Each structure stands twice: as C-alpha cells, then as structure tokens.
Amino acid sequence: MPPVSPSRGAFRTLTEEARAERKKAPPPAPRKDSVRRRQPEDAAQAEPVVAPRARKPKGVVFTSKYLGGDFSVGTSVESRWQTAAVLSFLMLLPLAAYCTGITFLFLIFPLTTIQTLGYLWFIFIYDQTPITGDRYPWLRGLCWWNHFCDYFPITLVKTADLPADRSYIFGYHPHGIISHGAFGAFATNGATAIDLSDADSARAPAVESGGEHQRGFSSLFPGVDVRLLTLPINFWVPVCRELLLWMGICSADRQTFQTILRDRQPRSIAVVVGGADEAVLSAPGTMQLYLERRKGFIREAVSAGASLVPVLAFGETDVYDTKKLHGVLRYIQETATHLFTFSLPIFHGRGVFFKDGFGFVPHRRSIVVVVGKPIAPPVIVGFDPRKVPAHRAAVDELHRRYVEALTSLYDAHKDAQWNDAGLRRLKTGAGGGLVSS
Q1: Cα–Cα distance measured from residue 117 to residue 123, given in angstroms and rounded to the nearest whole number
Q2: Which residue of 76, 119, 190, 361 could cross-link 149, Cys pair, CB 3.0 to 4.6 Å?
Q3: How far is CA 94 from CA 41, 207, 242, 251, 351, in A?
C-alpha cells in the first residue's frame, strides 16, 4: 500500500506550531566578536581611530619562506639600473677568470696561437701603460657610473682648493673590503659633489648646475689629472687590464709613482694606503686604519715634491658584513695576506633579488668621501732616506703631520649634517672612532 502524503492543511498546522515554539524560545547568545562595548558619553565628540594602511612596496615583490625572504626585482626602474651598474663592477672577477681561460684555449688552438702570443708579448713586455698611465680614460665619463654611485650613494666632498699646477698623492682611508668609494670617487665621474671650501660644513648644500647636482672629481678639482692605483696582478689578465686602463687605473708599483709624479705635465695619484692588512680590519661602524708602518707613499711624496692629501671615506666599512676570525684561523688569514699581498676577509652582503639574503652585492649604505687639505712636503736635495738619518727623520715628521691631519679631518666632519654615514654611526651606537695601528 503506497504511503499517504499529508494534505496542505497539515503542512500549514506544522508551520504555525514551529513559529510559536520559536517565539517562546530564548534568544540565542550573541557571538563574542559582535559584542559592542559601552561607549562613553562623549563618544560623539571622539574622533574615530582608523588603522593606518600598510604601504605596498613598489615593484614586483613577494615573500617566500623557502627562498629566505622578500624577492624583489627592484622598487623602480632607476634602482634596477643601479643594481646592474654595481653588478658590472663586481663581474670583473669572474670576467678575469673567463678571459684567462679563453686566452689559454686560443693559445693551444693552432689557428690563433700566433695572435695570442703577440697579445701576451704586448701585455707583459711592450705595453708600459699600467706604469705611465698614458692611456686616455674615456670610460670614466660614462653616465653608466652615475647609477653605480647612486646605488649606495657615494658623495665626494671638497674641503680645500687644490691648484692644478701641482702634483698630489691622495691617501684614501679606510680600505674596506673592495674599496667601492675609491673607485666611485677617483675612477669615475659619477659621485655627487659637495663643495665646502667656501661654505660652512654644518649646512653645506650640494653644488648645483642646471638644476642637477654636479658630479665627479673633475667638477670639484678642475685640471687635476688623477690615477687610481690597484694591485699589479690585475694587469696580468687579458682584456680586463684594458678596461682598467680605460678607467684611468694604474699599477700600484714604485715605478708608477716615479713616472707619473715626475711627468712634465703635473699629474696625481690616488692610493688606498692600508692595503690588504687594513681590509682584514674592516667591520661595520668602525674605522680602523693600518697606517703606522705605511711610509712608502710618504717617501715618494718627498722624493717627487708632491703634496699629500688625506682622504677619509665614511661608510666604506659598512657596505659589507664581516666575520672576525680567531686563533689558528686568524693566523692563517694573516699569513696568506702577507704571502699573496691581497687579503682573504670573511664577508657577505645581500643577494641580487633578496635584500635580507646572503650574497656578495654590497648593502645600500651611503659612502661619504671627504678630501682634506694638501700637506706640502719638505724640499730635500739628494733625498736618500736609506743612508741619511736626517732624511729618515724628515719622513717620520711628515708622516706624523699626515696622521694628525687625518685625525683632524675625521673630528671636523664626523657629525656633519650632510655626512649620512657619520650620522648612521651615531644611530647604530657603534664606537666608530678613528683607530690607527
């Protein structure tokens, strides 16, 4: 027998009974997240509190816990150009390895052996440009290096006039890890220029021309022809040596000092005095100089009659994080530094696409390069410090004056308003004092 379906009247009766039961039942308890607290009496006068919106970073950015942080291809087109310019400088080391390998292949390949031998003869025997600095530095003026200097950024500060009819030795301190500030200030014309020779250091505005900041060493010191020095081994690498020479970079050799400073046309030299020994001392927030035993550039200045110009780079040691070694590892590091004439510091920066990641790209931290006043050397006829004690005493006295000028330069500008690197030292609470050893 099929089931009998209820009639419409039965459905209506059930519905009315359900409504009546709902009316008699107590109201449901309110949800915790919907409870409203009692407003104060002056709630109408109180202003509503609106939570600030989080600013979305510009550019393509996403976070990945597997990749170690925020991945970004740059916050703007300008930042991408800046990163690319810094990478082009850092790629010189892998480019050197690549060029060395390609040269070896060309040497053993029968069709290119003679041409390769001719080029190697040109490098090691015939060409004296790394010593004479005669090649025109046309790469120095490229606007590409503006992006390089704006990455940190690098600022070049002038504190005194330097007549163009004299020769100078610019002593750059400290070395840091790779000396980005020395490259940007003396091997390019991309650094932002500030002239303090006729202005108060506490309120020195950047020199402007046509609405834009003046850039480069040549804008502050017109007529002063300077050559930055680097390790001689860098000029043994094919192709890479040509790039360095076109940047106006020369070999840090004694013969280079004697050739350039004694030229008929006054020319100057910029040298990173501390070298490999000072690079090992590099640490963020500090400025430790290896200067007590560095007197070779002092002797060359007296011999050639070139004035000494102290140069301090605030922030040079901040662009990389370093790891100090102790015990046996420290001994191995110091031994390798003295044997190979270049340092092996333990350091790291940031990644190309990861700001907080591990890599060899320097941090975006400002570098302020301050150029001090020139120090005239004594005039000594027949200068020979190895045989004449009086001449050695003159070298020691000039070295003492140079250290005092360097210390005065640090004390005068470490807390200036335009010195972002110096002010960052105060904000981080680091010691940051000038230490000479």
Answers
A1: 10
A2: 190
A3: 72, 38, 16, 20, 17
* Side chain identity, residue 118: G
- Phi, psi (rounded to 5 degrees) for 230: -140, 180
Q: Give the pair of three-digit tokens for residue 421.
A: 């690197």
- At residue 215's C-alpha, the angle toward residues 214 and 218, to 5°, is 105
Rounded to whole angstroms, how far apart are CA atoms 278 and 272? 10
Angstrom distance (rounded) from CA 246 to CA 203: 37
Give the tokens for residue 245: 């020479």
The span from the CA of 57 to the CA of 429, in Å, is: 29
CB 171 within 8 A of CB 402: yes
Question: The tokens 């140079």 sit on which residue?
Answer: 402
Nearest in space to 232 (alpha carbons), one of 213, 245, 246:
245
Q: In whole angstroms, how large is the CA radius of gyration of the chain?
A: 33
H helices of 262-342, where? 275-279, 296-304, 328-340
Cis peptide preceding 94, ω within 30 of 0: no
CB 377 within 8 A of CB 301: yes
Q: What is the pLDDT along the chain (437 residues), one digit of tens a residue?
A: 455 455 544 445 545 665 666 666 566 655 554 444 454 455 444 444 343 343 444 555 544 444 455 556 666 888 889 999 999 999 998 999 999 999 999 999 999 999 999 999 999 999 999 999 999 999 999 999 999 999 999 999 999 999 999 999 999 999 989 999 999 999 999 999 999 887 554 444 444 444 467 899 999 999 999 999 999 989 999 999 999 999 999 999 999 999 999 888 899 999 999 888 888 888 888 888 989 889 999 999 999 999 999 999 999 999 998 887 777 777 776 777 766 666 677 777 887 776 666 788 999 999 999 999 999 999 988 888 888 999 999 999 999 999 999 999 999 998 888 888 877 765 544 445 666 66
Counted residue by residue, the chain has a size of: 437
pTM beyond 0.85: the answer is: no
Q: What are phi and psi of 359, to 5 degrees?
A: -175, -170
Report d(CA 145, CA 191) in Å as an integer: 8
